[in-house]
Amino acid sequence: MRRFILATMLLLCLAAPRADEPPQPEDPLRIAADSGNADAMLRLALEYYRGENRPRNPTVAALWFRRAADAGRPEAHYNLAVMFRQGEGLPQSDYDAFGHFETASAAGIADARLALADYLISGVKPETNRDDPTPAIAPDYKRAMLLLRYLAAQDHPSGCRELAKQLLIAGASPNGTEQDFVEAAALLTRAAAHGDALSMRMLGNCYFAGIGVHSDYAKMLEYLTRAAELGDADAIAQLGWSHEFGYGVPPDRARALEYYRKAAEQGSTLGLAKIGDFLLVGDILAPDLPRAIKFFREAADADNPYALYKLGRCHADGVGVEYDPVQAVYCYSRAAELGEVNAQYFLGLAFLKGSGVAANPSAAFHWFSEAAHQNDPRALRELARCYYSGIGTEKDPEAGLECLTLAGKAGDEESNILLDMQNISTSEQAEVTSGF
Fold first, then answer.
1. What letters, b where the CB count within 10 A reaches 16 and e where it falls short, cover 50-86?
2. Closest of 321, 327, 386, 392 to residue 356, by C-alpha
3. Helix/strand/coil (H, E, C) string of 4-34?
4. What pLDDT score was predicted for residue 423?
């Protein structure tokens, strides 16, 4: 009994504040949250997440977000979804993120609808490496587009942009129409008017290539400049591209390098890859192959398509790295899937010639077609040859002539030579026929 009393007295002494210790301030927000106030729970979670008024602690933030979600706050579901998606304060789980985004979306939270649409486009893979394995969630493109169209109708900038992105993809597909491109450009214009920098950059690209709008380099520069002023690092890099090749401005490689450096400093992998180009060529910067390869690899590791293409070219030619056509095809493939037109063309050549990969005429035709959709004159020329000779497709001289004509109009000299030869041949044949 004596030991129990002494132990109790010791605990009381430890718990009691010392005379020289200032009293701890009350925490009204925590008291309100503990009492079951849902608004206080949400606010407390946000403070722990942001590190406002208390040390930042994502794990504790997640706990309070859960309690606020259980108390019926849809914003808490949205924040839990973000934390599950990022694996911050909670185990990374796209399945759990999807569920919370769905709940928040049903409650009318616009950003949750946007995130849910993104998941519905790609679907969610099963998660088997957990105590409670989850099934796959199948893509539902129709539902995703309904969500995006709803957001666009509300003039939600990111919703307009993401719907435009899907329409650009649809427009480039075999069943796509020019109307897809026109609607996409209109949506990007609306989002840009609301200050969305990424939409400005995408719209600049549309004006560059004449997608959904008439090609207009002045408009391209206007939108890229506005996006750059808002801190879009890739827009800064694209301004560098314009100055390097003279799109809308006189060609100026020194000025272009300034833009690339600024873009790379702000995190643009395109800017980093382009500095690698300058180090590879060695005209303004001193040639430095190891450093160029280092920049290409760093940007390629971040899935920059241009850097992947350049790394593939280095492997194909044995420049700065060992000659390795297999590795070149690997780099081309990753870049081509990301839409890099040069990689699509060279991947088509690799399949055509069987360089670094087994020859596959159908695959060659496919990748030439993909690059031709981006008006690449080299790919249009090779596609014409495929149609004329029946490589990877049925023979179709009319389609071949159309591709060759487009390539010639785009400035491909070899295509123009082939067209001239064809015209001479046709003329001679007409003379022989009329002689009979």
1. eeeeeeeebebbbbbbbbbbebebbbbbbbbbbbbbe
2. 327
3. HHHHHHHHHHHHCCCCCCCCCCCCHHHHHHH
4. 65
Phi and psi torsions of 124, nearest 5°: -125, 130
Contact 248, 242 (CB under 8 A): yes
What is the radius of gyration, based on Cα positions, of the chain? 29
| C-alpha span between 367 and 373 (Å, rounded) | 10
Let me know: does 277 contact 310? Beta carbons within 8 Å.
yes
Residue ranges in the chain whose pLDDT is less than 50 = 1-22, 24, 426-436
248 phi/psi in degrees, rounded to 5: 85, -5
CA angle 66, 79, 147 (to 5 degrees): 120
What's the CA gap between 285 and 279, in Å, rounded? 6
Q: What local confidence, expressed as pLDDT, does residue 424 receive?
A: 56
| Contact assessment for residue 383 and residue 373, using Cβ atoms and an 8 Å cutoff | no
Element (H, E) at 414: helix 413-435
Q: What string of H, E and C letters represents the secondary structure of 297-318? A: HHHHHCCCHHHHHHHHHHHHHC
Helices (H) and strands (E) in the chain, counts: 23, 0
DSSP state of 286: P
- Whole-number Å distance between alpha carbons of 32 and 17: 24
- For the record, the structure tokens of 187 come out as 């949506």
Question: Do 163 and 191 contact (CB within 8 A), yes or no?
Answer: no
Q: Give the tokens for residue 258.
A: 């300034």
Q: Which residues of 338-350 are buried (b: 16+ CB within 10 A; e: fewer)?
A: eebbbbbbbbbbb
For residues 424 and 422, give the distance between their C-alpha atoms in angstroms, rounded to a whole number: 5
Q: Cα–Cα–Cα angle for 63, 68, 74, nearest 5°? A: 120
Q: What pLDDT, on a 0 to 100 scale, did the predictor assign at position 33?
A: 96
Pick from 125, 166, 161: nearest CA to 143: 166
How far is the C-alpha of 83 from the C-alpha of 89, rounded, in Å? Answer: 7
SS3 387: helix
CA distance 34 to 28: 10
Which residue in the block uniquely carries the two structure tokens 């490589």?
A: 391
Residue 137 main-chain phi, psi, to 5 deg: -110, 120
pTM listed for this prediction: 0.82
Tell me what percent of the chain is helix, strand and coil, each rounded to the nearest 5. 70, 0, 30
